[in-house]
Amino acid sequence: MKHPVFAANWKMNQAPADAEAFLRQFLAYYPKTQDRTVIFFPSALSLHTVTIALQDRSDIKVGVQNIHWEDHGAFTGENSASIARGAGARYTLVGHSERRHVFGETDEQAGKKVAAAVRAGLTPLFCVGETLAEREAGRTVDVVLRQLRAGVAEVDKAQLHTFLLAYEPVWAIGTGKTATPADASTVHMAIRQELRTLAGARGEGIPILYGGSVNRGNAGSLLAAPEVGGLLVGGASLEADGWASIVRN
Ligand code: PEP
User: Fold this and answer.
1) Which partner for 144 in 47, 79, 104, 128 could form a disulfide, CB atoms 3.0-4.6 Å apart?
2) What pLDDT score does 1 carry?
């Protein structure tokens, strides 16, 4: 039986007061439940507010959208995994397509960030995904597995079973285009196979989320697809009742 994970990536939205108002509404729509996990990834500046607003809801977790790979030092404007943990985060996104393609983050940097997350006690939600050109060239699985191997290169593979993964095709993020459930499943199965190779039997239980223009209309069919263990959602997580209907799937 699936225990789905629903992750909300708020990107550069929801100032602290907006986040508080959102959560007041959302919590009214979403009573406590043990059969699924919900994680919010607010802006780093709203992290503390979100943590406080959720302190009575152990079923809902909080993460940070980005960390630096160093633990501390002269990196003006950056946040480390340990600072994020101190502000309440227990998870971090790493390798999100906007980090890779808007900010030029490399596979190697993503790997260093995963290692920094593990050092500080944050669970990585590690994202992989191909561009449209890579998909059209038939390179989807090669690209995704290359990103995955590089992402976990610096960590002890015995830790891998604690991670979360997300397959997010770049062409589907924020575009209104979604992978079909069958296409998503095909890639998730390739990721699962690689996780078995990397982590043995423990690779079996690692949730693989799908992300890319998920909404309340398509969430159910994506979630029902084989090997889709949850959803990572950007735009559709910004509206409380819409997000509540997605997480109730
Ligand atoms: C994301 O930011 O991870 C994402 C999947 O965005 P959207 O749902 O808006 O496509």
Assistant:
1) 128
2) 63
Give the closest residue (by CA) to ligand 1 atom 2: 234
Is 139 buried (19+), middle (13-18) or exposed (0-12) by CB count in 10 A?
middle
Q: How far is the CA of 74 from the centre of ligand 1 (A)?
A: 31
Its pTM stands at 0.97
Listed residue (94, 226, 224, 217) closest to 151, CA to CA: 94
Q: What's the domain count of the chain?
A: 1
Q: For 32-67, what is each residue's pLDDT tens digit?
A: 998 999 999 999 999 999 999 999 999 999 999 999
Share of the chain above pLDDT 90, in %: 98
> Do residues 186 and 138 touch, judged by C-beta distance below 8 A?
no
Ligand 1 environment, Cβ below 6 A: 9, 11, 168, 173-174, 211-214, 232-236
Residue type, 132: L
Q: Which CATH number belongs to the domain containing residue 42 in this structure? A: 3.20.20.70
Confidence of residue 2 (pLDDT cuts 50, 70, 90): confident
User: How far, in Å, is the centroid of ligand 1 from the Cα of 201?
Assistant: 30
Helix, strand or coil, per DSSP, at residue 107: helix
pLDDT number for residue 71: 97
In whole angstroms, give the CA distance from residue 181 to residue 21: 33
Contact 75, 47 (CB under 8 A): no
> Which residue range(s) make up the domain with 171?
5-247
The catalytic position among 105, 130, 168, 194 is 168
To the nearest whole percent, how much of the chain has pLDDT over 70? 100
* pLDDT over 70 at 155, yes or no: yes
The token duo for 191 is 């990721």
